[in-house]
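Help needed: design a sequence for this.
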């Protein structure tokens, strides 16, 4: 036979085009793009008729926390590499980049990377990579940054908040200088940790400890200030490329836009929680402990900020829409109750609620649902921010995030035909997200009850169908997902300018 898999009758969407064509797949790669219908009778081991539905490069989610130790007490984040990657493929994501967390007490990055590998190896349903999470900018850690690229790791994340992981400004500068020299992208969680610790103490003293006060402890201004500081520090170290993660605030968005306009290599990410949740509806309004389901950092913001985030996603301020999947169960795994609920604190205490939400499976369907509104997300933009840009930014392109014959892995999402098509199953017309339909190992979704308009019908990873919604669901194998070595990123010629500028030199300041 000529092909291993053919997808016919699809409308292919990439970051730049929407066009009907057939896809011929040989082994793990896309072999051919051909006029629509022309491969319907080709000799192939397997044929998928997309019936006019959209076909896109598989989702690339570069912000996923799996099996990470909790910063808020015992235990770790709810999803393992097995359950988190299973959830990913059921939502159309074929590659994710998780974190290899270096703890404060652990001086070595390489030890942290090895530990992450041993958790992930043979346990993943989708392809995966790692960002190094630098929790301790020790001499040893800094010297190891140079070893990361040869291990296929070309990004790291640092925190300007969280007592357990927060780096001081001088440490941030040391990391930026090392990262720059090694073409490693620095992701920054920008919130002013000292100020929010101070605010938390004040709220605690007044007994304002219910989950909704999480938002009071992290006002938007702290994100704005830290974002501005991060941009300034990166500029100081000879324009080191940075990526500001999970941006939620309007002021921070403006700072980023201004830096980009000046030509500084500043990239930014936002997440579904800042597009689909608001402080008013999801933190302020629910009674009692229910608001804990929406405690993440930064917290969901007000409606005005939300509108600015949507605009920033459309106009390119945000290159990527990632999930920041970082789930913790609502009910304690052991006691069945939240440990932070006690007689003294009947609705819990926000400072002890682990921060983070699940969302690796709902990211693409929710973003897809926004494409039916022209003022929200054009289809090509959807592919750009959920797949292609992530692949470019993190050094996976064009192996991932593209449909290039001979070059791209055959990683695809096939959607159901759109509304109005006679081939579309009627059941999709009232498709509502419920936790029971998801494949993560978490006891809630913050998006319960949300209407969506479509869902990945098939997910294909390196030429194999791994998700078949109308068949047996998860049909991929645990362990089929592979570690992908990443190169330096290519988005907007990210490293070009740095190379031209030469090394950082204090003498030139
Ligand atoms: O609340 C969040 N976002 N938790 C995950 C950890 C992080 O800061 O990305
Ligand atoms: Zn973060
Ligand atoms: Zn995160
Ligand atoms: Zn607690």
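Sure. Designed sequence:
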């Amino acid at each position: 036979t000529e092909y291993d898999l053919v997808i016919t009758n699809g409308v292919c969407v990439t970051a730049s085009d929407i066009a009907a064509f057939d896809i011929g797949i040989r082994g793990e790669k896309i072999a051919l793009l051909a006029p629509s219908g022309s491969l319907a009778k080709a000799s192939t081991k397997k044929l998928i008729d997309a019936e006019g539905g959209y076909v896109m490069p598989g989702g690339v989610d570069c912000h996923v926390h799996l099996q990470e130790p909790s910063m808020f007490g015992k235990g770790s984040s709810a999803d393992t590499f097995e359950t988190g990657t299973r959830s990913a493929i059921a939502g159309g994501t074929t590659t994710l980049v998780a974190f290899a967390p270096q703890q404060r007490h652990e001086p070595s990055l390489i030890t942290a990377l090895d530990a992450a590998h041993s958790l992930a190896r043979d346990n993943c349903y989708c392809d995966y990579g790692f960002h190094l999470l630098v929790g301790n900018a020790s001499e040893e850690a800094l010297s190891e940054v140079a070893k990361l690229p040869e291990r296929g790791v070309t990004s790291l994340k640092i925190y300007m908040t969280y007592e357990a992981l927060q780096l001081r400004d001088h440490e941030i500068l040391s990391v930026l200088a090392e990262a720059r020299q090694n073409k490693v992208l620095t992701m920054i969680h920008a919130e002013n940790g000292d100020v929010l610790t101070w605010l938390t103490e004040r709220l605690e003293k007044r007994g304002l400890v219910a989950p909704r006060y999480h938002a009071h402890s992290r006002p938007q201004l702290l994100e704005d200030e830290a974002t501005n500081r991060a941009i300034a520090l990166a500029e100081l170290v000879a324009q080191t490329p940075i990526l500001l993660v999970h941006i939620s605030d309007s002021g921070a968005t403006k700072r980023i836009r201004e830096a980009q306009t000046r030509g500084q290599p500043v990239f930014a990410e936002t997440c579904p929680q800042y597009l689909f949740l608001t402080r008013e509806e999801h933190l302020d309004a629910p009674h009692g402990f229910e608001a804990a389901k929406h405690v993440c950092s930064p917290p969901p913001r007000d409606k005005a900020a939300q509108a600015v985030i949507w605009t920033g996603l459309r106009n390119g301020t945000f290159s990527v829409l990632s999930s920041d999947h970082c789930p913790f169960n609502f009910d304690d795994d052991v006691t069945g109750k939240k440990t932070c609920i006690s007689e003294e604190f009947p609705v819990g205490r926000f400072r002890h609620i682990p921060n983070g939400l699940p969302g690796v499976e709902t990211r693409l369907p929710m973003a897809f649902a926004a494409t039916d509104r022209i003022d929200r997300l054009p289809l090509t933009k959807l592919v750009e921010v959920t797949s292609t840009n992530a692949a470019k930014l993190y050094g996976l392109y064009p192996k991932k995030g593209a449909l290039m014959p001979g070059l791209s892995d055959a990683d695809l999402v096939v959607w159901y035909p759109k509304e109005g098509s006679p081939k579309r199953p009627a059941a999709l017309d009232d498709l509502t997200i419920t936790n029971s339909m998801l494949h993560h190992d978490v006891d809630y979704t913050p998006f319960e009850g949300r209407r969506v308009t479509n869902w990945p019908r098939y997910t294909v990873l390196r030429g194999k169908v791994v998700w078949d919604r109308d068949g047996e669901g998860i049909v991929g194998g645990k362990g089929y997902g592979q570690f992908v070595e990443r190169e330096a990123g290519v988005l907007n010629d990210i490293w070009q300018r740095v190379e031209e500028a030469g090394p950082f030199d204090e003498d030139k300041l």
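The CA atoms of residues 132 and 156 lie 4 Å apart.
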